[in-house]
Amino acid sequence: MKIKACLFDLDGVIVDTAKFHFIAWKEMAAELGFDFSEDDNELLKGVSRMRSLEILLDIGKITRTDEEKLILAEQKNRRYLEFVYQMTDDEILPGVTRFLTDLRSNGMLIALGSASKNAPLILDRIHLKGQFDEIVDGNAVSKAKPDPEVFLRCASLLKVEPSVCLVFEDAQAGIEAALNGGMNVIGVGSSDNLSLADHYIPGFKKLDYELLSKWYN
Ligand code: B16
Ligand code: MG
């Protein structure tokens, strides 16, 4: 198998936190006087907190100063964290825990590469932190996906070349980030908007090390 390291996005791959982001953003939009739909929420997947706020304000045709934006982003995050603190292991998407264990027992290196500044807290809540050799989150990078920075940082911490890394991503920008970094990539989830990945899976239920070895021999 040519793959030595698997790099996982968090939201949409390990857990579905998009539903919590959606509620928090929708409430903020309502307070600001406009509606925010599930389709709108698709635009925020994999996007940083501040950029998400800017997209939301654009949708509502609302202008705010940088200082006001910081306050709004903080307010949204407090609301979002109320959901995160209630998360349990049940939130882990089907097949993920088994797949991570399977990878580890076959000697695969594992890292998390997420835009979320709350990633370590979420992994703690769902008791998965110990499964990751390295965690690179939104606090550690300055350039958002599709820039490959987050995944290249994972590779460098794991001391492996990008060409032996395999990224699991649910967002188009994340798939592009992996490709821009010279990595292999599998698209995860049901979105019709994904393209360019080597393979697509609806989730991890049917994926194991053996199948990966066939795909990347
Ligand atoms: P936070 P990922 C991303 O997670 C989410 O998909 C995106 O909706 C969110 O705005 C971003 O994290 C930042 O999250 O506010 O917690 O820092 O898909 O990169 O794991
Ligand atoms: Mg994601």
CATH architecture type of the largest domain: 3-Layer(aba) Sandwich
Rounded Rg: 17 Å
The number of helical runs is: 9
SS class: alpha/beta
Using brief descriptors, characterize the structure shown.
217 residues, alpha/beta, Rossmann fold, DNA polymerase, domain 1, 2 domains, 6-stranded parallel beta sheet, 9 helices, 43% helix, globular, binds 1,6-di-O-phosphono-beta-D-glucopyranose, binds magnesium ion
Task: Please give the structural blueprint.
Layout: E1 5-8, H1 18-32, H2 38-42, H3 49-59, H4 66-84, H5 96-105, E2 109-113, H6 119-125, E3 134-136, H7 149-158, E4 165-169, H8 172-180, E5 184-188, E6 199-201, H9 209-215
Parallel strand pairs: 1-2, 1-4, 2-3, 4-5, 5-6
Helix pairs in contact: 1-4, 3-4
Bound molecules: 1,6-di-O-phosphono-beta-D-glucopyranose (B16) and magnesium ion.
Care to describe what's here?
The chain is globular, with a radius of gyration of 17 Å. A 6-stranded parallel beta sheet has the order 3-2-1-4-5-6, with helices on both faces. With 217 residues, it is α/β, with parallel strands linked by helices. It contains 9 helices and 6 strands, in the order βαααααβαβαβαββα. The protein is 43% helix and 12% strand. Helix 1 crosses helix 4 (66-84) and helix 3 packs across helix 4. Strand 2 (109-113), helix 6 and strand 3 form a beta-alpha-beta unit. The chain folds into 2 domains: 5-16 and 90-216, HAD superfamily/HAD-like (Rossmann fold), CATH 3.40.50; 18-84, Orthogonal Bundle (DNA polymerase, domain 1). 1,6-di-O-phosphono-beta-D-glucopyranose binds at residues 9-12, 21, 44-49, 52, 77, 114-118, 138.
